[in-house]
Design a protein that fits this description.
With 278 residues, this protein is α/β, with parallel strands linked by helices. It is 23% helix and 30% strand. The strands form three sheets. A seven-stranded mixed beta sheet has the order 10-9-8-7-11-12-15, with helices on both faces. The chain has a six-stranded antiparallel beta sheet with strand order 4-3-6-1-2-5. The chain has a two-stranded antiparallel ribbon with strand order 13-14. It is globular, with a radius of gyration of 19 Å.
Length: 278
């Protein structure tokens, strides 16, 4: 059973990565009074696609996806956009300050089922964050037959996770779309949205993708999922990361209720044919 008491975590460092967005590096600290490192072992079992709750003392907490899951020393990372009171306060903190964390929570990407498949990953805006550790894991283990990423942003200034996409494009096909059409002329930048270039991307597969991972605005994900099913991709092959305002993260507050399920405990990863509400 998850504890509702946050664990201490140090803000190690950060860097700006997109418009009003930063990539943060945290480190789990030893629990007080010399207690065991069992909490660290629990965090080391984090799955790609899961999330955690970050507490800024005296202000509250908010949910965030792992862009890098905790390592053996308790270091992990998250992409955070400045939006409300909690994130605004976080952006004012300096490295070395101590925050609180709870987690990991939810159901992550089905990495065992993705192994050695033709994989298409599509992210929009901040929605690329839940895909980062999945893409990194596939590349690191080289356990895919084809892996392609499509990422959409409103403007070039709003593009996020720039170092990751720069690194990936030397290993796998990466398609970046810019909604306002102001691209920089690079071969892998296209005007429009991920939906606009999807037919061309699917043509590069030859055979249909065996797994599709979607993360981003729900309207975008739903539209793309419907298009893919009509195109011939199995609804059982499409997975979505559903973003909700998880207040408790353990299925008691009801803020992320979706018909008969909760995004925090039954998600955030849902298979398209099993999504409780569309």
């Amino acid at each position: 059973m998850h504890s509702l008491t946050p664990l201490p975590a140090e803000l190690v460092d950060f860097y700006d990565d997109g418009e009003h967005t930063r990539h943060f590096h945290f480190r789990l600290l030893e629990e007080p009074l010399g207690t065991s490192r069992e909490h660290l072992s629990h965090w080391q079992q984090t799955q790609t696609g899961q999330f955690f709750m970050l507490t800024v003392p005296s202000l509250g907490e908010a949910p965030f996806s792992f862009t890098e899951v905790p390592d053996e020393n308790g270091h992990f990372r998250a992409l955070i956009r400045r939006m409300g009171a909690v994130t605004s306060a976080l952006f004012e903190l300096e490295a070395g300050q101590v925050l609180g964390v709870r987690g990991p929570f939810g159901i992550g990407w089905p990495m065992d089922e993705i192994s050695n498949k033709r994989v298409l990953a599509i992210g929009g805006g901040c929605g690329l964050a839940p895909l980062v550790s999945a893409v990194d894991q596939l590349i690191e283990r080289q356990n895919y037959t084809q892996l392609t990423l499509v990422y959409g942003a409103r403007t070039r200034q709003a593009q996020m996770l720039n170092p990751e996409r720069e690194r990936w494009q030397h290993i796998i096909p990466v398609y970046n779309t810019i909604e306002d059409g102001l691209t920089n002329g690079r071969d892998n930048e296209y005007p429009g949205t991920p939906s606009d270039i999807l037919p061309s991307v699917l043509d590069t597969f030859g055979e249909l993708p065996e797994v599709v991972l979607l993360a981003g605005p729900e309207a975008m994900m739903y539209s793309i999922a419907e298009y893919l099913v009509a195109y011939g991709v199995s609804a059982q092959a499409i997975y979505l990361s559903i973003e909700r305002r998880m207040h408790c993260a353990v299925g008691t507050c009801g803020h992320c209720y979706m018909d008969s399920q909760y995004a925090c405990t039954d998600g955030p990863t849902f298979r398209w044919d099993q999504l409780p509400s569309k």
